[in-house]
Amino acid sequence: MQKSAQEKWILYSTCDEDSYSELRALEITSNDRVLCVTGSGCRTLSLLACNPKHLISVDYAPGQNYLLELKLAAIRSLSYDKLLQFFGVEDCRHRWEIFCSFEDKISPQASTYFRANRWAIDTGILFAGRHELFYVRFVAPIMRLLFGRQMEQLAHAANLEEQREIYNKHISGFLWHSLIRVGFSPLSISLILNDPKYVVEMNVNVGDYLIERLDHTFNHHLVRDNHWTSFMFYGKYLGKRCLPHFLLEENYHAIRQATTKFEIVTGNLIEYIQKVPAHSIDKYSLSDVTSCINAEGFKTLMQEVIRTSEDQGKLCYRNFLNKQLIPSELEDNFQRDTELSSSLYHDDLAFAYSFEVAHISKTKKQVEKMTTAQLM
């Protein structure tokens, strides 16, 4: 299969976000209609575990949506133990045979895509994204080389007090800070992502910001319980309880049992939402959408959120390197949950993101005005 620019190999293959944060923010119920961004598909599957009435997952990259298809089909087709083997969490020498056993459960396009990238199936799909390979091939080996003994101690720390002592006395310092500043410089991030559609507008000092956030996470969250920190620095998950939310056994069963009307959409998020009828969405899980669009595009997206939302809907999105707040002219329609947004920033296991959580409030006149403007 000859890949176009859009069909190049996936950027994300596993979760670099903490789905518990979305679930706390949105409080999904069985009556909710939810719009989310696909990304690695992990957050989408965590939302699916809540069994909403309707779930729509959107991504401009076909490969990311193919990955979501693959993950869902694998969950529905495989036993839990075999699923962990297939995904790469556990050792396995016959992943391709496992893939072939449920290949008919995914679309022909997805099947063709993964057949063209068999190496990723054989590797273990969770570990094969361009983003993830950076950590598996570069970050984890460097950590073993420079901080091997200390990282081993962190993985076995009995409590936070012990972990803090190891990190603050034996890791945090000039060498550590230098590695973070070089490894996560704007140039390094652009090379890692290698995706012209990922805007990576940055209005923070990347190195200093990540040093502060890493200090926070090592002082507040045990590494052995944190799926993203373990993947990032060890290149693997440190046990069955140190897995992304969707992959925990109880959530695996919830996903299999979900009766949700589920749609996967490949296309531009703004262009898609402009076609969505008014009052048709209750909850919005928009990931770090601010990294992918500029301020003008973000304003357009927020206007469409107001138009398409049910009154008193809920919005959750992350900010990473590009910190964008709700545009001031739209603030009357969004009641920001300042306390919850701050709490998620403190508690989020993925450590690098800040949060915007808001209730969506609108009047009939406002909706009619937006709808009229859209049709002009």
TrEMBL record:
Domain of life: Bacteria
InterPro entries xrefs: DUF3419 (IPR021829)
Protein name per its UniProtKB record: NocK
UniProt gene name: nocK
